[in-house]
Amino acid sequence: MPSLKKQIQKIYKFILDILFPVRCLSCGKEGKWICGDCLATIELIKNPTCPKCGKPSKYGKFCAECSFKSRMTGIMVAASYDDKLLQKSIHTMKYKFVKDLAKPLSKILVKTLNSNLLDSQILANKLVYIPVPLHTKRLKWRGFNQAQELSYWLNNQLKIPTRQDILVRSKHTQPQMQIKSHLVRRKNIKNAFQCTNPKVVKDKTIILIDDVCTTSATLEECAKALYQAKPKEIWGLVLARVQ
Ligand SMILES: [Zn+2]
Ligand SMILES: [Zn+2]
């Protein structure tokens, strides 16, 4: 029996849908936040680069010179933040609180995972998705964690287990996008995460999911916390990189 609160939310959503029908953010067609045609226009990155130095590198792996600077094997970036529709979608999801956008956006992540990893050995390993956690304060403000929503839909399509309970954010930090200096960004996020269940992480290939990464300081701190639990590999997977 659904709770009264859930029923009221459902009715509220139903009325809103009639008054303000969902329209494609790009072409305005009624029915979906991003229609299939417009979603297909978001181009996937074809020539991935080393997240640190920008040299061409398969799947977005850290190159030989940069690999020792990271606890991650690489960061898979799905598309370019220059894509206006992608930019608008991410912004609408996070700052206009449209949780439903995670579903179409997750399809871009699925395509990236499929095309980047099916030909490598990574999918053969035991994979676990871990969404980058939000601090409870921020979670309350937004009402949902966008990384968690993306992971939910990824799991829905690729059936890879998602664990949102093994990485926690212990420190409330200023949003990384609001900070200009790289050094301050790194300081802001330092030691913000803790791994609460090392057993789940051990010998697994971890895919850290987030909507965007800026300097990658957040992903790096997550990886630092997980690395102690001896995973096989840690990858980042994001929709876009914001420079
Ligand atoms: Zn459209
Ligand atoms: Zn490099």
What does this structure look like?
- By secondary structure, this protein is of the alpha/beta class.
- The protein has a single domain, classed as Rossmann fold, CATH 3.40.50.2020.
- Helix content is 37%, strand content 15%.
- The protein has 9 helices and 6 strands.
- It has helices at residues 4-19, 36-39, 84-95, 102-117, 136-142, 146-158, 182-189, 198-201, 217-227; strands spanning 74-80, 127-131, 167-169, 193-195, 205-213, 233-241.
- The strands form 2 sheets. The chain has a 4-stranded parallel sheet with strand order 1-6-5-2, with helices on both faces. It has a two-stranded antiparallel ribbon with strand order 3-4.
- α9 (217-227) links the parallel β5 and β6 (233-241).
- α4 packs across α6 (146-158).
- The mean pLDDT is 90.
- One zinc ion (ZN) is lined by residues 24, 26-27, 29, 35, 37-38.
